[in-house]
Design the sequence.
């Protein structure tokens, strides 16, 4: 399920020719994503290593984990909300078994600054952390 969701986003981004348009699509994705409730904007849910404040909150329901996310910057919000959507509804086992290198199919290293790419890696680490908690 994780790979299928990721592939859907890869396909969307691959259908956009211009790098600037891809960047704008990610920002629009963030702008159109639901805002997080203020009570979840705490240090505990903050993603370390992001250039702007970014939060990722797990919700454990039955044997699945669902994520809500937000960020102070639109590009970070777009990325963290996309990552949250890819993993939401998965079991901890599925998250731990999934090879996060699959995200390289999105070709973000050519689109984002090194600092933003580090933030994406931090988001992925936080997802794994929640799955092992």
Sequence:
């Amino acid at each position: 399920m994780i790979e299928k969701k990721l592939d859907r986003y890869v396909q969307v981004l691959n259908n956009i020719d211009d790098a600037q348009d891809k960047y704008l699509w990610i920002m629009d994705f963030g702008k159109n994503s639901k805002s997080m409730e203020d009570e979840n904007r705490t240090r505990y849910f903050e993603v370390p290593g992001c250039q702007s404040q970014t939060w990722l909150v797990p919700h454990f329901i039955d044997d699945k984990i669902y994520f809500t996310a937000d960020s102070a910057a639109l590009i970070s919000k777009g990325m963290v909300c996309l990552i949250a959507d890819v993993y939401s509804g998965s079991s901890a086992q599925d998250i731990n078994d999934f090879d996060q290198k699959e995200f390289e199919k999105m070709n973000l290293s050519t689109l984002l600054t090194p600092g933003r790419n580090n933030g994406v890696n931090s988001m992925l680490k936080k997802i794994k952390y929640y799955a092992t908690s």
